[in-house]
Specification:
By secondary structure, the protein is an alpha+beta fold. The protein has a three-stranded antiparallel sheet with strand order 1-2-3. Strands 4-5-6 form a three-stranded mixed sheet, with helices on one face. It has two domains: 48 residues, no CATH class; 95 residues, K homology (KH) domain (GMP Synthetase, Chain A, domain 3, 2-Layer Sandwich). Helix content is 32%, strand content 37%. It is elongated, with a radius of gyration of 18 Å.
Length: 145
């Protein structure tokens, strides 16, 4: 399996510095990063941050893993919408990701709501990003539409 890479070029201090993060493997995007937008809401929060990128990675990985899990269990996935909310908080040790909330809504053929919920839970447990973030509280709200 190939490794995937991203990089950040940063200039300045934490409060006045800025950076550019690049998705190097795919070349799909480059993002401006700025610490104050990471820890505040409002108009200055118009740049991405590590938590948003974690949320994007987790939503993508879970969706792919659920599609595979359903297929291996003879459930045909028609549509799936996954959103992930990553919460950052400050504590005595500094900043930490405290919770990750996955919400998934799907339409399928071949499974009722209880079976779908069971397979979604399996997909979350076996998702490589979920496993990498195992030290964080991860919740799953998966339901059929």
């Amino acid at each position: 399996m190939p490794a995937r890479t991203a990089s950040t070029a940063w200039e300045g201090g934490i409060d006045d510095g800025r950076g550019r993060t690049s998705l190097d493997s795919s070349g799909a995007a480059t993002f401006d990063v700025f610490f104050p937008s990471r820890v505040a809401d409002g108009p200055e929060h118009n740049q991405t941050d590590p938590e948003e990128l974690v949320a994007a990675a987790h939503a993508t990985c879970f969706s792919m893993n659920l599609a595979g899990t359903l297929g291996r269990n003879d459930v045909k996935l028609k549509t799936l919408r996954t959103s992930v909310k990553v919460t950052l908080a400050k504590n005595d040790a500094g900043l930490t990701i405290t919770t990750i909330e996955i919400t998934a809504r799907a339409t399928v053929d071949g499974a009722e709501k209880d079976r779908f919920a069971e397979l979604a839970a399996e997909a979350e447990r076996t998702c490589p990003v979920s496993k990498a973030l195992a030290g964080t509280t991860i919740t799953l709200d998966a339901a059929l539409e």
